[in-house]
Amino acid sequence: MPPLEGKRALVLGVANERSIAWAIARALAADGARIGLTYVGDSIERRVRPLAEEIGADVLGSCDVTSDAEIASLFEEVQSRWGSLDVLVHAIAFARREDLMGRFVDTDREGFRIALDVSAYSLVGLCRAALPLFQAARGGSVLTLTFAGSERVFPNYNVMGVAKAALEAAVRYLAADLGPEGVRVNAISAGPIKTLSAAGIRNFRDMLHVAEARAPLKRNVSADDVGRLAAALAGPAGAAITGQVLYADAGLSVLGV
What we know:
Largest sheet: 7 strands, parallel
Radius of gyration: 17 Å
Number of helices: 7
Strand order of the largest sheet: 3-2-1-4-5-6-7
Shape: globular
Distance between the termini: 44 Å
């Protein structure tokens, strides 16, 4: 029997077929999970619906994670359709383009607020809203995505690096809070991958070339690499893992220079 047979997984953050979130959704579906997808805005909805059809996923509606009302509405829909939840995938991050250029010190208050709200606090809000559904399932798994810019300075990553650092701290605190409920919370720190969101980082191609040249495995990672790891964490193989940041970066993070 597939390891996630009968499980229900809600995946937020699919933007198109190159999204890491999409690779995770496909991997979860391949392992037997029933998938629910969301979108934000008409243009993303037009991309998500055909993808959902490919894997037989439910499209659960729009969810702007900066709105508590929309988060509540989403989980009311999950409750109505499924009654419980086993896996929550948070693949959401955003910063204004101007805040990914120049100096971090020039980030204004609003740019900082937006990046931290969308990229870090949203995990907290989603976990809080999902908790009754996890309790109905007698436990579950939460997964989010981070990047090494949380620990080290990457050119043109700026406020997003700070947001990812906050996200990783939130993973640890959420793991402590939700562990007694049988809910595990982990993050995957992937190497650079060419996605829609990565297109907003200036000179991102240079980052890809450097990563491939320096990584011990001498290659870049793919969205599918991350998807397979996410599926493992969500299943029996991840049963004793919580509060962790796991690296899928071809070994790049182990290097000192």
